[in-house]
Amino acid sequence: MKTPVxxxxxxxxxxxxxxxxxxxxxxxxxxDYVTQLDSCEAILREFQAxxxxxxxxxxxxxxxxxxxxxxxxxGFILGVKDGYGILMVKKxxxxxxxxxxxxxxxxxxxxxxxxxxxxTIYVFTDDRTPRMLFTQRLNVGVDAAAVAGPKVAETERxxxxxLKAPVLLYTKAKGxxxxxxxxxxxxxxxxxxxxxxxxxxYTIPEIVDSDWITPPAEVQPLMNYxxxxxx
Length: 231
Prior knowledge:
Blueprint: H1 3-19, H2 21-49, H3 57-60, E1 65-73, E2 80-89, E3 100-105, E4 117-124, E5 138-140, E6 146-148, H4 160-163, E7 167-170, E8 185-189, H5 191-198, H6 204-209, H7 220-229
Parallel strand pairs: 6-7
Antiparallel strand pairs: 1-2, 1-4, 2-3, 3-8, 4-7, 5-8
């Protein structure tokens, strides 16, 4: 008759774990990361809803990876202090990976002067460049050539040379014409955020390149949306 006792002990241990300060702190952190993911999805949807900022189908058809970032200014005209983003890569069979959280910062483009945030979408047109994030901090425009991408409203002026760039960048900055060379600071992996979000010890290479992560409900809307615009 030890079974009821063992069950009671197991239940008590579970309740203790769920009520522990460490567990509560982890849940708060996870909510923060889910909020970051949701904000990146909102940024992408807002860009695509406006022809003045939307990424053309011809560009999305070439996408091998997409990064969406939300960065914060350190001052009125100063560069960016820090920020966050998500990385998704397209697999060989055409499916998009689960989103991995990354860090983004130190941009100094003078974008959106007077605003508090810089929202940016990066479309990577090759497989190698986004995977630099697996092992190093990627300085966009230094480690990989980056140009301002053409918008839907500019499609008729798009040239083939622009689409050949490894990184096509989209912001809401005015006066940044398609094909202009840009530098946007760094992107880097955030292993802590991904451990908390996915409750895993896998890091960004396994998260985006394998099928070892079962997508939680919170990431499904973003995955479905990206699949719909870049099948």
